[in-house]
Design a protein that fits this description.
Layout: H1 2-19, H2 23-61, H3 63-78, H4 86-100, H5 104-120, H6 130-140, H7 148-156, H8 166-188
Helix pairs in contact: 1-2, 2-7, 3-4, 4-5, 5-6, 6-8
């Protein structure tokens, strides 16, 4: 449905522009926006390659493993069922670690693996477990220690200080994750 709405808006905009004698401005705007989009995407690719490479170096150097070891005791308390399975807990830790560094594209395979491993522990296959629901909430509101995607966008757009958002992003995502965990734990008692 949304595709029809967008198509209608674009078509009406072009038709009105042509009828008002602004057809040349419309074609110039289309070309300029395509050019600026290409510039943004190329800038993002470079910065994302940098951050993905940094994450690989952190992984190879053992930094992510150290962070994972710091997280495991807390996650064993939060995830009662998944704490019994090292594969599930390992996938959860790797997903959250990648998300903390703002690398959601690298975190996705770990998230899928974590859900698959938790589903193996699930007695009722047609219904998500409390651990699965909690994982989705924590994953959606994951604490961002280094919001690399947002920093990349800010850098690609020429920000004078793209990293200034690190502290506000960490606070906002930390509060969101805490509220999400509290709500999940309260709702687990009733559902």
């Amino acid at each position: 449905m949304i595709n029809y709405i967008w198509f209608t808006m674009v078509l009406l905009g072009i038709a009105i522009g042509i009828f008002t004698g602004n057809g040349e401005l419309i074609s110039k705007a289309i070309i300029d926006s395509a050019s600026s989009t290409t510039d943004l995407m190329l800038g993002l690719m470079g910065v994302m390659c940098f951050w993905c490479g940094t994450m690989k170096v952190a992984e190879k150097s053992g930094l992510t493993d150290k962070l994972a070891n710091l997280l495991k005791p807390f996650l064993r308390i939060l995830f009662k069922g998944a704490a019994r399975d090292d594969k599930a807990l390992g996938a959860i830790v790797m997903n959250l670690t990648a998300n903390m560094f703002g690398l959601s594209n690298a975190a996705t395979p770990f998230g899928i693996k974590a859900m698959e491993e938790m589903d193996k522990l699930n007695d009722k296959k047609e219904m998500a477990t409390n651990d699965m629901a909690l994982f989705l909430v924590i994953n959606a509101a994951c604490i961002q220690l280094v919001p690399s995607t947002v920093i990349s966008i800010r850098a690609a757009e020429g920000s004078s200080n793209p990293g200034i958002i690190i502290i506000p992003a960490t606070i906002a995502t930390g509060v969101a994750a805490l509220v999400g965990v509290i709500c999940c734990k309260i709702l687990q008692r009733y559902f």
